[in-house]
Amino acid sequence: MSIKRRDFLKTAAGSSLLLAAGTSTAWGASAQDELPPKALGILYDSNLCIGCQACMTACKRANDMPAEHSGPNSIWDNPLDLSAKTLNIIKMYTSGEEQAFVKRQCMHCLEPACAAACPVSALRKDPETGVVTYDKDACIGCRYCQIACPYNVPKFEWDDPFPQIQKCQLCDHLYDQGRYAACCEACPTGASLFGPVKDLQEEAQRRLLMEPGRYYEFPVNHIQKGSAVRHRAKAYVDHIYGAQELGGTQVMLLAGTDFQNLGLPELKATSYVRDLEGISKGLYKYMLYPVAALGGLLYVVKKRGGHDERP
Amino acid sequence: MAEARPAGGRVLTVPFVIGIAVILIAGIYMAKRFIYGLGPVTGMNDGFPWGLWIAYDVNVGTAFACGGYAMAVLIYIFNRFEYSPLLKPAILTSMFGYILGGFSVFIDIGRYWQMHNVFLPWHANVHSALFEVALCIATYCLVLLIEFAPVVFKRYPIKDLETKLNRILFVFVALGMLLPTMHQSSLGSLMVLAGAKLSPLWWSKLLPLFFLMAAMLLGYAIVIFETSLSSLRFNTPHELKIVRRLSSIVPWVLGVFILMRIQDINAQGALGLAFQGDLAGNMFLIEMGLMLVGLLLIALPGNRQDPTKVLWSALCILLGVGLYRFNAYIIGYDPGNGWHYFPAVGELMITLGIIAVEILGYLWIVKRFPVLALPERPQRA
Asked: What is the mean pLDDT of residues A12-35?
């Protein structure tokens, strides 16, 4: 673990009393449309998903996750939601005739609230790929990331005396082997598509312009390395979920039904991370205010004799 | 003339023994928590990752422990030295509240064996409000111990150390005013990141300011409350006179706090949420109601001459403002997806055990150490 000397000094200065509002931040510098240079992500298309759950099996295998038995008579892995055992899940929404699948996992936010919240930098956004990673050796288990995450993604091992946080890390441990997210490797229809976020954004926009009922080519698995299949386009809701939400996310979704029906929260465009950043900059002004306040207090108390008796 | 001296009397009374029993039961659950993990002992879950221990023990508990802070600000900043007899007992309760708040954090965090990471520069995230809270609370615990040390020296003098400490005590007194200002507001900043999951009845960009005002209010209220109680128990008429004057400050701070909050909710267009009839709305109304009753009870100067009204007002403020902070962490928080939280028995017992330690510790110290300003005892012939 290497750290720049300047960063160390900056942090040390902060730790000497408290928070220094640094110049650039690990999470706050990226603007809405400013992606990390090699930002990777997933485009999930609910209209292409057939609910086969191949992605869930692949995810469990790639990340060495245990099976989750929901209910007393469960024989096989059947999680009901994301949990400390399940990093990726396909759920189905039904309403009368209408049905739609949705994939839930870490969204890999451009301004991740979990990383902003974490007091020990256990959650970090990779400056190159933008993947939000977790380091159990840094984590103190305070669970503030769970409070902060707008999507309730990080999960905690409640029944373990030595617990850790679990969440999708976009299979960043597979990149060295020339592989990518296992869920996308396994997806037969192209519903889960891996690749550079920029390419995925263009692909998403292309799909929104498609004429429902006509046939089109859809890339499968990996937008640059994968093959392609022909599907008949279905009608899309005119919104790329994750393009605007709280400053944007690297995992994006397309769907034929309202995203709120799929359990995705309706969120404003600016992140709460920015709101908080504005507040603490205003309050602390690069540590100037606290230091000035301490100076003033020292003077006043000294003048009054430094004891609680009348000087 | 009244001056600080031990109150004397038996320490091992019947309530004291009951308190010890509560602490022992809490100890059993604590062992269970470390052997089996947090799940089997608490009601916490992935939707409500923070429960009673953070929302009450730390968030409300350390605010109840702001008596020392609130009094110090009054005495040193506003030059009101007539209040100084109240400072020592206030610092004592602050010390217990903060150290036990810190202890609750230790029980609550999952990977406690790595808690020192907060203090390591290469791990510390200086932008995190929780980092700021952790660092300041840890430092403030030390500051409180040092501020209280002169009382201990009065009973067990260590000549050299005492004079040395007195020379630099002013540094700690100053820190003792800066640190709570910072972390009590940060406890509010914390919940800014909860964002859409926190009801607009509590979510606000002004959270740090509201939490600071709440800490101040709870600090004064707890001093009024404790002094009124100990004057009943230990006969300290001198302190009671001071409390009457102290209670004239509270209505102003409380009035501004209530108005600002209502205006802030109104600006978000969320006042209607108060009247939905759901838990959050009702808790908001209870919280506001308690604050208003507390305000009305001591807003009139005539009422402030009546010790009973002052005591009831302090109690309403403690409950109302305490509830505000509790609501902002639990009741107003909704992760969606049908998650629920209710504290489990073990969780509750551990909290009660911690409260018992505070009360027993306070009683033992005021009986054995010179903390309270007591009138002269008649000389025995």
From this structure: 43
Q: What is the pTM of this model?
A: 0.90
Could you report the per-residue pLDDT of A204-214, keeping only the tens digit for each? 999 999 999 99
* B-interface mutation test, from A279, A289, A310, most B Cβ less than 10 A away: A279
B17: closest CA of chain A, how far (Å) = 32
Give the residues across from A89 on adjacent strands.
A104
**A212-224: pLDDT as tens digits:** 999 999 999 999 9
Smallest CA–CA distance from A140 into chain B, residue: B111
Statement: residue B32 has pLDDT above 70: yes
CB contacts of B124 in chain A (<8 Å) are: 11, 14-15, 119-121
Residue B76 exposed, middle or buried by CB count within 10 Å (0-12, 13-18, 19+): buried
User: Any CB–CB contact under 8 A between B174 and chain A?
Assistant: yes
Q: Which of B32, B73, B94, B127 is the best substitution to test chain A (most A C-beta atoms within 10 A)?
A: B127
Q: What is the mean pLDDT of residues A24-31?
A: 38
Q: What angle do CA A97, A98, A99 make, to 5 degrees?
A: 120
Measured in angstroms, the CA of B160 and the nearest CA of chain A are apart by 18
Q: What is d(CA A204, CA B316) in angstroms, rounded to the nearest whole number?
A: 56
Q: In whole angstroms, give the CA distance from residue B69 to residue B74.
A: 9
Using alpha carbons, list the distances in angstroms from residue B275 to A145, B201, B210, B283: 31, 11, 22, 10
For A156, name the nearest residue in chain B, comparing CA atoms only: B46
Q: Is B110 helix (H, G, I), strand (E, B) or coil?
A: coil
SS3 B315: helix
DSSP tag of B375: P
Q: What is the 3-state secondary structure (H, E, C) of chain A?
A: CCCCHHHHHHHHHHHHHCCCCCCCCCCCCCCCCCCCCCCEEEEEECCCCCCCCHHHHHHHHHHCCCCCCCCCCCCCCCCCCCECCECCEEEEEEECCEEEEEEECCCCECCCHHHHHCCCCCEEECCCCCCEEECCCCCCCCCHHHHHCCCCCCEECCCCCCCCEECCCCCCCCHHHCCCCHHHHHCCCCCEEEEEHHHHHHHHHHHHCCCCCCEEEEECCECCCCCEEEEECCCCCCCCECCCHHHCECEEEECCCCCCCCCCCCCCCCCHHHHHHHHHHHHHCCCHHHHHHHHHHHHHHHHCCCCCCCC
Strand (E) or helix (H) holding B3? strand B3-4
Distance from CA of B169 to the nearest CA of A (A): 7
Shortest distance, CA B269 to any CA of chain A (angstroms): 16
A-chain residues near B193 (CB < 8 A): 113, 116-117, 144, 147-148, 272-273, 276
Q: Assess B127–A contact: CB distance below 8 Å, yes or no.
A: yes
CA distance B281 to B271: 10
Contact B111 A8 (CB under 8 A): no
| A241-300 residues touching B, CB cutoff 8 A | 246, 263, 265, 267-268, 272-273, 275-280, 283, 290, 293-294, 297-298, 300
